Amino acid sequence: MAHADRPHGSPLPAACAVSDEGALAGRQFEEAAHPYRSPFERDRGRIIHARAFRRLAGKTQVFTHRCSDHFRSRLTHTMEVAQIARTIARTLGLNEDLTEALALVHDIGHPPFGHAGERALDEVLRRHGLRFDHNLHALRIVDHFELRYLAFRGLNLTLGVREGIVKHSRDYTEADHPELKGLLLDRRPPLEAQLIDLADEIAYLTADLDDGLEAEILELRDIRREVTLFERYYAPLEASHPGGTPKLLFYEALKRMLNALAGDLISETAWRVEEGGIRDLGGIRNAAQRLAGFSPEMEDLRLEAKRYLYENLYLSDDLRAAHKEAAQAVTGLFEMWMADPSLLPVSYQSQIADDGAPRVIGDYIAGMTDTFILTLYRESGSARSQDAESGVEGKLRKP
């Protein structure tokens, strides 16, 4: 690997890390300092206690119909990302509490059914001149939808976490998104935010190989043949442990693959910072491009593994069928509520005057778990079917 001679334990200059006392630790609504918890520790706690965070347990990571209790949900995936991200941050000498808070909140804006649900929701909103973006929806959740405090609406998270929610995986402009004014859109995000999307990649590449094999959609022999980075560790393990079962060899090789990805990310990011002569957060902010990343060789191996998963897991017949039902549920309920908003819960009906029916319905659907939306969709279908047979108007349950 490129720059592999750099020790993984070499931290960056201390000034490259986000401070617990700087501007990024500030909040929209001023609060007294906590006697023993840092601002980003408090954010972590607020995220964990949020209703939207708990609902991640009922949202798809890959498998819409979870026929095994061992498949990842959005919540277990989030915990894995947080563990990986915090380790990387600690090794680089970055702010661990900020990194962990960002990892815990990074998927909080995802709708039910994973990326299939997001595509379906974006498609129906497009018909009304709107879009769905899970990063922007996550910011709406923490700023407006979570109601837990007497003194303010939302969670009143720090600027560092709010900026990272929006910018951890892509860049936005104030011209396109004036509602994001104040989130430093003209500057690079701190390294704590930059590494979240990469820790996410590490987590899902390895976890999806595991879940795909568990679901019997992927086969070990194909993974070995098509995923070079995995085979790099499996082959020598098989030779050195002739009595090892394929399953245990698989787990060990997968663990080493994860460690290799994380180690490369640490080494390459540290090398880029050093090579650029960057000594503080200002240098990271003003860099020509994002500094966190994989080496060229590891990036090729990562893309190879990602292609394998797309072609053999995400586009498999099993998941296509599940994605079809997901799209039908999202589209069917959206269109039903657009036709008759009185079927929405009263709390959502009251928001239509300010935000418009399409956005309110999109927000409602985005907050649902897989089970809840499927139940509503099937009940609505049963009601319509009964109407056709009996001529009696059916009533959809109002949650």
From TrEMBL:
The keyword Hydrolase applies. It holds the Pfam family HD_assoc. Residues 74-205 form the HD domain. SMART domains: HDc. Keywords: Hydrolase. Belongs to the dGTPase family. Type 2 subfamily. This is Deoxyguanosinetriphosphate triphosphohydrolase-like protein. It comes from Paracidobacterium acidisoli. The gene is dgt.
